[in-house]
Amino acid sequence: MARAGLTADRVTEAAADLADVVGFDNVTLSALARGFGVADASLYSHVRNMRDLRTRVAVRAAAELGDRLAAATAGRAGKESLTGFANAWRDFARECPGRYQATQMPVDPEIVAGSPGHQRIMAITYAHLSAYALPEPDLTDAIRLLRSTYQGFFAIEASSGFDHPRDLQSSWEKILDALDNALTHWRVSS
């Protein structure tokens, strides 16, 4: 084991890297072990099982996405913050597709509560919408609208499903304009 230099962090990072190549759902302990030149059983000294490994990748990916979202929204408000947030998330989904998939994995609430990355994403999500002054439950509804829109767009874009000559970036910008308009003119629940 020592000759391979394995640690839980190193195994997690290798799994995240592999996920970006083969897809998060296609990462296996066998493939990781082959990459390290060790037997599958050697990995169990560092991760309990596949669920544990997936959770570790999700926590790592959330930290990475949180860093990007923080940088993209710092000092910005309203549409500028919305655009920065959306573009950072889209770039992450395109550049790190396996890690992006990992951020969409349901994670136990106790783990989310102890994950700085997950907590940071939630805080940034609420903070970047503060300029729209939406009270609850409208704020939650707005977040669900944004998340659904972004994830739908990312999924279709990743599968090359936008088969139309219209420039994709122009469509993305129109979507962000429409979302800003929807948030600006949101009819608050009574």
TrEMBL record:
DNA-binding region, residue intervals: 28-47
Gene3D superfamilies: Homeodomain-like (1.10.10.60), Tetracycline Repressor, domain 2 (1.10.357.10)
InterPro entries in UniProt: DNA-bd_HTH_TetR-type_CS, Homeodomain-like_sf, HTH_TetR, MT1864/Rv1816-like_C, Tet_transcr_reg_TetR-rel_C_sf
Domain annotation HTH tetR-type: ranges: 5-65
Keyword ATP-binding: no
GO molecular function: DNA binding
Keyword Transcription regulation appears in the UniProt entry: yes
Keyword annotations of the record: DNA-binding, Transcription, Transcription regulation
Protein name in UniProt: TetR/AcrR family transcriptional regulator
